[in-house]
UniProtKB/TrEMBL annotation:
Protein name: LacI family transcriptional regulator
Keyword Cell membrane: no
HTH lacI-type domain residues: 20-74
Organism: Winogradskya consettensis
InterPro entries, sorted: HTH_LacI (IPR000843), LacI/GalR-like_sensor (IPR046335), Lambda_DNA-bd_dom_sf (IPR010982), Peripla_BP_I (IPR028082)
């Protein structure tokens, strides 16, 4: 059976529509075919004027690059995996993830790359994930919230998949990572409480199989010594439960440094339920300076970490590796600052 052609209202056959070609884009833009190709491939070897002309021609003609053909030529998929090693519930509840994902997504879009978000915690999710992360599917991977001395970054690099992780690795093989100065930020927070006359300062830690949790506890010990320590997992409920335990151990404590804003929110809730005033009876400081900090009662004093900048730096390092350029600064640690609000 032959294909039927479209006809006009007068009954005349209309020419079959076809997608515009690369040559037509070049003609419309007034540049060579090679310039169009370089613009599409994200090359820096194009003048701003030529790049704008090509982009305008692409928009006018509705040109869509043939991704399959381009992959054969460039040996790239133009896809970057963003892998989060937490449960979906934790991912959507923690403000940190939303902010850094938005920053990463913006950086990739600016380079014409697509982001593949993968959330994996259970063993079967992890198994599927490892099978997918190959050069046939992605050009590189950004890894968030790894626990312990996870071997995955090394495995991916051995497969030729460039990787950058958020947070300093727990092992001795540091690789390429971006982190905030967790220890310094925690140290500043506890020193501030001490300078304000607080003498019985407790802490609620983050997970001790994560670099951030370990470093923030170390910063606490730098100022408070052995102190009074209870462990949490960065969630609000763990912060509340830890606060109950802390008050049981020392009913006279006068300050709490929580290693995340969500845990600090849990601490504030328990203090309020126990009839303790913040900051008059117990001062509270969190970590992250997230949206949570501005909406607690009272507003939360917190250590600000530059999350958006962390995302930008992760993208910069990864794209450098994908382009075959080993970064001169593969270990990036960003400064933190203390934001004073009503809770301390």
């Amino acid at each position: 059976m032959s294909a039927r052609r479209a006809v006009s209202r007068s009954g005349q056959a209309l020419p079959a529509t076809r997608p515009p070609t690369l040559d037509e884009v070049a003609t419309r833009a007034g540049v060579g075919r090679g310039t169009v190709s370089r613009v599409i491939n994200g090359s820096a070897q194009v003048s701003d004027q030529a790049r704008e002309a090509v982009r305008s021609a692409i928009a006018e003609l509705g040109y869509v690059p043939n991704r399959a053909a381009r992959t054969l030529v460039t040996q790239r998929t133009d896809s970057i995996a963003l892998v989060v090693f937490e449960s979906g519930e934790r991912f959507f509840a923690e403000p940190f993830f939303g902010r850094i994902v938005q920053s990463i997504s913006t950086g990739l879009v600016d380079r014409g790359l697509q982001m593949v978000l993968m959330i994996a915690q259970a063993p079967h999710e992890r198994e599927r994930l490892e099978g997918y992360l190959t050069r046939q599917h992605v050009d590189g991977a950004l890894l968030l919230s790894l626990h312990g001395a996870d071997p995955l970054p090394t495995k991916l690099e051995e497969r030729g998949v460039a990787t950058v992780r958020a947070g300093r690795p727990a092992g001795t093989d540091l690789g390429c990572y971006v982190d905030a100065d967790n220890r310094g930020g925690a140290r500043d927070a506890v020193a501030y409480l001490k300078d304000r006359g607080r003498h019985r300062i407790a802490t609620i830690t983050g997970p001790q199989d994560m670099a951030a949790g370990i470093a923030r506890l170390a910063g606490y010990h730098d100022v408070a010594g052995p102190g009074l320590v209870e462990h949490g997992d960065f969630s609000e409920e763990s912060g509340a439960a830890a606060t109950v335990r802390l008050l049981s151990q020392d009913p006279e404590l006068d300050a709490i440094f929580a290693a995340s804003d969500t845990m600090a929110a849990g601490a504030l809730r328990i203090l309020r339920e126990r009839g303790l005033r913040t900051p008059q009876d117990v001062a509270v400081v969190g970590f992250d300076d997230s949206v949570v900090a501005a909406h607690t009662d009272p507003p939360l004093t917190s250590v600000h970490q530059p999350i958006e900048q962390m995302g930008q730096e992760m993208v910069r390092l990864l794209l450098s590796k994908i382009d075959g350029i080993e970064p001169s600064d593969p270990e990036v640690v960003l400064t933190t600052s203390l934001v004073i609000r009503g809770s301390a």
